[in-house]
Amino acid sequence: MSVSRIIRLPPLPSIRDLIKLYKLRAMKELSQNFLMEPRLISRIVRSAGSFKDCEVCEVGPGPGNITRSIIQNMPSRVLIIEKDKRFTPSLELLAESSPVPLELIFGDVMNFNLEQMFNEDNKMEWEDKCPQIHLIGNLPFNVSTPLIIRWLKAISERKSAWRYGRVRMTLTFQKEVAERMAAPIMTRERSRLSVMCQNWCRVEHKFNIPGKITIILFYLM
Ligand SMILES: C[S@@+](CC[C@H](N)C(=O)[O-])C[C@H]1O[C@@H](n2cnc3c(N)ncnc32)[C@H](O)[C@@H]1O
């Protein structure tokens, strides 16, 4: 007998319907832009690897489209950090129907310390295997680059989420920025950003999304 590896969510209105119902227009001034294609969303989540029994923290869930797919991949717990309170009803609805604990935090991820956010039982020694914790997010470009620089500093100090060990991250970046992050030595794209990222992480370019977005998985060295 084959066992399904995807959790089925109870029937929920589609994200498209929720956006209409709660008038969640993407605000261009906040660089908001929602991914609507289910196959693309599930490809992003799959590219992060297995979430089974992991604590997953998603930054910038918006109406919750990536969040739904994360939940379906059987994590032990999901934390979401969102700046824009307009998404409250849509995210609360998802939290109510989620078969795994889903905790909403409203705030700016740039001011957020992930030091106490995860289960102490998931803590690993740095040299040991990666902990069952994953960070994921499709953030606006004006946030994702300063955020990764901030997180690289936290990694170097083994602070914030990296107090729990070599926590993996799957994030989206503007294509040109991603190319610089992943650039091998002696290439045109090689830059200070390449050195900073690759000093601390194994940078894996996963795939490009039409519209100049690139998915990058960071494994820590
Ligand atoms: C590009 S949209 C992506 C929405 C959704 N995850 C998707 O992929 O369709 C970025 C999301 O990040 C949120 N956001 C932007 N800046 C943020 C910040 N500093 N802290 C937390 N969330 C932020 C926005 O409100 C928005 O919901």
UniProtKB/TrEMBL annotation:
Enzyme Commission number, as recorded: 2.1.1.-
GO biological process: transcription initiation at mitochondrial promoter
InterPro entries in the record: KsgA/Erm, rRNA_Ade_methylase_Trfase_N, SAM-dependent_MTases_sf
Entry GO terms, CC: mitochondrial matrix
A Pfam short name: RrnaAD
Subcellular location, record wording: Mitochondrion
Claim: rRNA processing is one of the keywords in the record: yes
Transmembrane segments: none
One Gene Ontology molecular-function label: rRNA (adenine-N6,N6-)-dimethyltransferase activity
Residues annotated for S-adenosyl-L-methionine binding in this entry: N33, L35, G60, E82, D108, N138
Residue ranges of every copy of the Ribosomal RNA adenine methylase transferase N-terminal domain listed in the record: 40-219
Keyword entries, A-Z: Methyltransferase, Mitochondrion, RNA-binding, rRNA processing, S-adenosyl-L-methionine, Transcription, Transcription regulation, Transferase, Transit peptide
Main location: mitochondrion
Enzyme superclass (EC): transferase
UniProt record similarity statement: Belongs to the class I-like SAM-binding methyltransferase superfamily. rRNA adenine N(6)-methyltransferase family.
Protein name: rRNA adenine N(6)-methyltransferase
Organism: Acyrthosiphon pisum (Pea aphid)
